[in-house]
Amino acid sequence: MKLLRQNEVDRWQRKLVTLSQDCFYKVLTTEQKARALKGQYNFNHPDAFDNDLLHKILKNIVEGKTVKVPTYDFVTHSRLPETTVVYPADVVLFEGILVFYTQEIRDMFHLCLFLDCFEEFSGTCTGRRDLEQILIQYINFVKPAFEEFCLQTKKYADVIIPRGVHNMVAINLIVQHI
After folding, report:
1. What is any Pfam family matched here (predicted)?
2. CATH for 169
């Protein structure tokens, strides 16, 4: 994504913006927030996203309107009052783990790319507790959600990019296409 968005204006002077599905996590209830703070809430499930708001904002962008995109705080697991103003653009790059999951949203895209880059857990942590927490999250939420929800959306992609961001040939072809 970084290579695709590194220039705000490409060689044809088109305006480009990027959005992340991470901005559209739902506002959590008190109970959900308590579970999230303990690492027991599944942020990798389709129900974790506010798809109504996401659809509304994408629709407005497609219609050439200026929008305010929410800001999500991963430390407090809440939406911040601050928003990001997104102006009309010729190209909108929208990235996220489940962007193709909902048909209503998927149908808004002109080109669907699936970066096939899910790799086994390979993180480093600074303490046993951190590593333990990350492994619990991975085993209980990340890997099962990838297999159940994300992987099945691969069939909706126009282009599947093996090796994800490490496949510079494919990335450069996409950059030229855009």
Report:
1. PRK
2. 3.40.50.300
Which of 142, 155, 44 lies closest to 96 in space, CA to CA? 44
Structural domain count, the chain: 1
Amino acid at 104: E
For the chain, list residues with pLDDT below 50: 3-4, 6-10, 120-128
Q: Are strands 16-20 and 91-95 parallel, antiparallel or unpaired?
A: parallel
Residue reference for tokens 């069939």: 155
Tokens representing residue 89 in the block = 């653009």
Which amino acid would we find at residue 45?
A: H
Instruction: Answer yes or no: 22 catalytic.
Output: yes
pLDDT of residue 13: 63
Say how far apart CA 157 and CA 153 lie, in whole Å: 7
Catalytic annotation, pick one of 22, 50, 116, 158:
22
Token pair in block for residue 108: 């808004």
3-state secondary structure 40-65: CCCCCCHHHECHHHHHHHHHHHHCCC
Query: Domain residues for 63?
Result: 2-177
Q: How many angstroms separate the CA atoms of 49 and 175, rounded?
A: 28
pLDDT of residue 29: 94
